[in-house]
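Write out this protein's structure.
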Amino acid sequence: MPIPILCFVGRSNSGKTTLIERVIPELVRAGYRVATIKHAGHGFDLDTEGKDSWRHKRAGASAVIVVSKGSLAMFSDVPDQIKVEELRDRFIDHEFDLIIAEGWRSEGYPKIVVLRDHVGEVPVSLDSLLAVVSNKPVDLGVPCLNPDDIQGVSELITRHFPKRPEA
């Protein structure tokens, strides 16, 4: 059974990352093993110029993996648009209970929309909408939770995504 994916979507600076950062510890306390995948719509650069991994990639390697005690990082060429399930299936260990994806609003995965100003700032299908997180009341036929109600957001997630049985 594939690891379930929950997308947090919202416009830039709406508070998605902060919300995810606050929800993860609650899920971990509940016994969940959580992986996250972040979509960076404007690109990013994590590798540092001059470091060995940067030099390997610049020399033409399609993928570079850096491993140290307790950590692993991978820099890999990917298509312009890659689906979150492709990332899950290629890179995420099956020991996880849930993948929290930041972004991928157009995909059909269950979503929590983080609104800062008003409904409509982020077009999303109501079919896949689990909840709205906003400091203003929003009526879209799904729960509307305050950004500071971390326990409420966590409980909603654990109800929709029960912990997977231990292998």
